[in-house]
Design brief:
The complex is a heterodimer. Chain A folds into two domains: 305 residues, no CATH class; 271 residues. Helix content of chain A is 33%, strand content 21%. In chain A, the strands form five sheets. Chain A has a nine-stranded antiparallel sheet with strand order 14-15-10-7-6-5-4-3-22, with no helix packed on it. Chain A starts with a helix and ends with a strand. Helix content of chain B is 6%, strand content 44%. Chain B has one helix and 27 strands. The longest helix of chain B is centred in the N-terminal third of the chain and has 20 residues. The chains are: A alpha+beta, B mainly beta. At the A-B interface, helix 8 and helix 9 of A face strand 7 of B.
Chain lengths: 616, 341
């Protein structure tokens, strides 16, 4: 007790004291109920209160003398100490860095500070955009940040010649280029899908610039497009979420969030916009740059309800695209076929497998619901660990040999590890029927690792290796049957849990989950799974015929189209841009229909209209 | 020894070598390097440490001046044949142009042209500018003022190398993902003259014989053409196992070629590529990003091992000395004419 006392005292002090180092009320507080709020006024009030909490917390964190851009933005949003903020901004702008990650925060400050910053600070801002050369970047999120910022800053300082800008272009040229790229990106996203889709972190790098466009663009078209893209991206998240957690598959996630499913920037947006989870530490870091302007966005009720109010389990399909392919491909953007099954107790999501994104792809997984997600590894999945110049040359333009190693010192340390749990594989083929996943692996002899990794969480309530070959496990209220198709061994994971390592070139995994409530007992679930018809052959190629708990006969063979109840599945023909009970869009349509109960909203990028309707 | 002290010491040695009389007259060219300095927190998009990456210039081959913006992905440079002060750099942002040797810059390309890999002028039509891109080839009729795509006939259009024949207007060679392509009509149409399994990373025209070209490839070894790029043969002795980055002529000595690549070290040939001598012994590693032959100091080579100092040799690679930079990836080494004062 004596040793605990100072810690408790400090915690109480930090909680009570709103100044530097104060605890984040929502981050450390209880989990919200997650129930939908039917009252529009109360919903809005709660949203603004959350926004206010985040901004006030940020503004009180750091003394002005050491304040960074987020601290300054928060103070400007609260209209605090404009003179002090101005003086500090001048200091901060003396050493700009971060490229597009510098551009959008500084854009935010420039607009928030239009009537607050001193003339000297305004001049420092102007000078920074002449002397600092932020890079344009090499991927979609970079370009969204870059061009949204360029459009707004060219608008802030119109009519200026190239000599006044770091890139030598005039304000008019910058605005035209930025607008052209943004329209191009929106067109791609609303016709063949987003390239960096469903990212647990990078969702912020899309939502924040779109918010800025929606608020600050002078051109009403760009304001409207910004608003519509926020709805579009947020709805895409809402439908693929469980208790505010972004469920897979993801174009990009990270080593932390792939295990602790809640712990990503996306959960900040779930907290702020849906109120159904707690925010990550620091409100997700970048989330602050949304929060400071968030009062200008109103979460549509239909999206709020999609995230928080589900009538029952649902199957949702999406078509996305890969990011730009430069080499090793005959197509610039290959299609990505996503399937997500969401129920009250768990969600299962997948893509079709393959190298769909570089480095941080998460191809399939099950996420189970938990009373409190903080610190919980509430997921089970498998992957084929792969890395190499083949993948990197496809998605990056640089020389081949240095790239794998260089990735490991660019913030992705597990990229070349055999223990990695992130990343796609050219040897993996995945098919999901309802909540059943079949992943097959045909691994080449010269692959970097001839093995499959399965993640078994420290937070599984139980896990049993059954003589039948199934591994039965329970996470939360979810029963899971996990069937490795080849022999395996167990490897402990630092930080908890263990890794199933199956070192065989012909391989695969079947995942068959169920809600515990659907079975009278644990034993009954196991018996039901054992009784399911299952045929497995691994030579010459992995091949599975399996009848699921929902009674569907699924046949998969590596290199062939899957069959369900004898019917060949044609991904290209059957996967629409969005298809499910809540979101629907046709490929090429530029039109997304959001539906919940009697509510609907149509985002039509052809006419730039948002149409709300209530079915009588 | 600290980086600064080591750098100073190396620089002083190099300067002494220069002053000792190797060059009777002032160099006519300045050495330029396109560098990514990957110190802590540096060298990554979205981050910046204390080191400044980008274009460095050296007049004395001993001290280096950073020119232009901090930029971690600059890949190739050239100059306007009519005015050596006008510098072009193919970079992550597209094609950058400086009218004043790097004091001011303009990105000449727009959003639809990213990550320029190589740039070349047509000496016969010096307003004509060609740009190699990861998704094809762009042409500018006015020195970068306007651009259009010109890549008809190329499939798998990733292009990393480009050379414009200095004796035949409108004749351009491009090193693409699956071969070397040739155009005789200012890039309007292309035909593949040499298939390759993977990317061609470097293409050069001989300064001694305009019909002679060489190419460094990723999986087809070093290639040479004696008929203006129409036909190609593999040069012996190197093999196809490793990625070749540069294959360059010595402007002072016909028949001399210098080659580098990943795991290849530095190789020197005195007989036009028939035989090679390994000149990597004094270098810290065999992963060599780029090499160059000094046009003003016969026998002097520069080599940039991956994530190391840049090295210089005054005896064609038999011995090497570190020059500068520390942990560097040098995407390109090049010489631009020194403008008249």
């Amino acid at each position: 007790m004596k040793r605990a006392f100072p810690g408790l005292f400090l915690l109480a002090l930090l909680t009570a004291w709103p100044g530097r180092g104060s605890a984040q009320p929502a981050h450390t507080g209880p989990m919200p109920s997650g129930r939908p709020e039917p009252e529009a006024f109360l919903r809005r009030e709660a949203y603004l209160a959350r926004r206010d909490e985040a901004v006030r917390w940020r503004a009180a964190q750091t003394p002005l003398a050491s304040a960074g851009l987020a601290d300054l933005a928060a103070r400007l949003a609260l209209r605090q100490d404009a003179a002090g903020v101005s003086a500090r901004l001048i200091e901060v702008l003396r050493a700009p860095s971060g490229d597009m990650f510098w551009m959008f925060p500084v854009t935010c400050i420039a607009y928030l500070g239009r009537e607050q910053l001193t003339p000297e600070a305004q001049a420092a801002l102007r000078e920074a955009w002449r002397t600092y050369h932020p890079l344009r970047g090499d991927t979609e999120n970079h370009w969204v940040m870059y061009y949204s910022s360029m459009l707004l800053m060219a608008q802030l300082w119109p009519g200026e010649p190239g000599e006044r800008w770091f890139n030598g272009k005039s304000s008019t040229e910058i605005a035209a280029e930025a607008r052209a790229w943004l329209l191009h990106w929106m067109d791609l996203a609303t016709t063949i899908g987003q390239g960096e889709y469903d990212c647990t972190h990078y969702i912020g790098e899309y939502l924040i610039p779109m918010l800025y466009l929606s608020v600050w663009a002078h051109d009403p078209e760009m304001r409207q497009r910004g608003r519509m893209m926020i709805d579009y991206i947020l709805a895409d998240f809402a439908v693929d979420s469980l208790q505010g957690m972004y469920v897979g598959a993801h174009a990009r996630t990270d080593d932390k969030t792939v295990l602790e499913r809640w712990n990503g920037l996306s959960s900040f947006f779930a907290w702020l916009c849906f109120g159904n989870t707690v925010p990550p530490v620091g409100y997700g870091g970048w989330g602050m740059f949304f929060a400071v302007v968030a009062q200008h966005y109103e979460v549509p009720e239909v999206i709020h309800r999609i995230a928080t109010d589900r009538a029952g389990p649902y199957l949702h399909r999406e078509r996305k695209r890969t990011r730009h392919r430069w080499r090793n491909s005959d197509v610039r953007n290959a299609p990505v076929y996503k399937t997500t099954w969401v129920g009250p107790d768990y969600a299962v999501g997948s893509d079709q497998g393959g190298l769909l994104q570089p480095i941080q792809q998460h191809s399939w997984g099950l996420t189970w619901a938990v009373p409190d997600p903080r610190g919980v590894h509430n997921t089970i999945f498998a992957n084929q660990p792969f890395f190499g110049a083949q993948e990197l040359m496809m998605y990056f333009t640089e020389m081949p040999d240095w790239m794998p190693a260089s990735v490991t010192f660019q913030g992705k340390p597990t990229y070349t590890s055999e223990a990695k749990l992130l990343g796609g594989s050219p040897y993996e083929q995945i098919f999901q029927q309802d909540d059943t996943v079949i992943a097959l692996h045909r691994i080449a002899a010269d692959a970097p690792f001839i093995q499959v990794n399965g993640f078994f969480s420290k937070d599984l309530a139980r896990a049993e290796e059954d003589p039948s070959g199934w591994i039965f496990a329970q996470g939360g209220r979810t029963y899971v049957a996990f069937r490795p198709l080849a022999p395996y061994e167990w490897v402990p994971i630092e930080g908890g849990g263990r890794r199933l390592r199956s070192p065989h070139a012909r391989n695969g995994v079947i995942l068959q989950p169920a809600s515990a409530a659907d079975f009278p007992s644990w034993d009954a679930f196991k018996a039901a799974v054992r009784a399911l018809p299952l045929e497995v052959r691994l030579e010459p190629v992995p091949r599975v015929a399996f009848t699921t708990l929902r009674g569907r006969r699924v046949e998969c063979a590596h290199g062939e189209a899957p069959r369900v109840d004898g019917r060949v599945i044609d991904h290209a023909a059957e996967w629409r841009l969005f298809a499910g009970p809540y979101l629907n869009a046709e490929v090429g349509s530029r039109r997304l229909e959001l539906t919940h109960g009697r509510l609907s909203r149509v985002l039509d990028f052809n006419t730039l209209t948002i149409t709300d309707a209530v079915r009588p | 020894m600290t980086w600064n002290a080591r750098s100073f010491f190396a620089g002083a040695l190099a300067l002494a070598a220069v002053l000792s009389g190797q060059a009777a007259e002032a160099p006519r060219h300045d050495l330029h390097l396109l560098v990514n300095l990957s110190g802590p927190g540096s060298g990554i998009i979205g981050r910046a440490g204390p080191a400044r990456s980008g274009l460095y210039r050296s007049a004395d081959r001993a001290t280096f001046e950073h020119v232009g913006p901090h930029h971690i992905r600059m890949f190739h440079l050239t100059h306007d044949p009519r005015d050596a002060r006008v510098v072009y750099v193919a970079a992550l942002d597209g094609l950058l142009r400086s009218p004043d040797r790097g004091r001011t810059w303009r990105i000449t390309t727009s959003w639809d042209m990213t990550e320029g890999k190589a740039v070349g002028f047509d000496p016969a039509q010096p307003a004509h500018l060609y740009l190699a891109l990861p998704d094809g080839i762009a042409f500018s009729p006015d020195g970068g003022g306007t651009w259009e795509r010109r890549q008809a006939g190329i499939t798998r259009a990733y292009t990393n190398a480009l050379v414009v024949d200095r004796t035949r207007p409108g004749r351009v060679l491009a090193g693409c993902e699956l071969g070397i392509h040739l155009s005789d009509d200012a890039a309007h149409t292309w035909r593949r003259v040499q298939p390759t399994a993977k990317v061609t990373y470097d293409l050069r025209q001989s300064p001694h014989d305009p019909r002679a070209f060489v190419a460094a490839t990723s999986a087809d070894g070093p290639l040479a053409s004696a008929d203006g790029g129409e036909t190609w043969r593999e040069l012996p002795g190197i093999g196809r196992e490793r990625t070749l980055h540069n294959l360059v002529y010595d402007p002072s000595t016909p028949g001399r070629l210098v080659l580098c690549g990943w795991g290849v070290g530095v190789q020197v040939s005195e007989d036009g590529g028939l035989t090679w001598a390994d000149r990597s012994a004094g270098l810290p590693r065999r992963e060599i990003w780029s090499v160059a032959v000094d046009p003003d100091f016969p026998g002097r080579l520069y080599a940039a091992p991956f994530q190391e100092d840049v090295y210089a040799s005054d005896d064609l690679g038999r011995t090497w000395r570190p020059l500068s930079f520390g942990k560097a990836t040098v995407f390109a080494l090049g010489f631009l004419p020194r403008p008249a004062q």
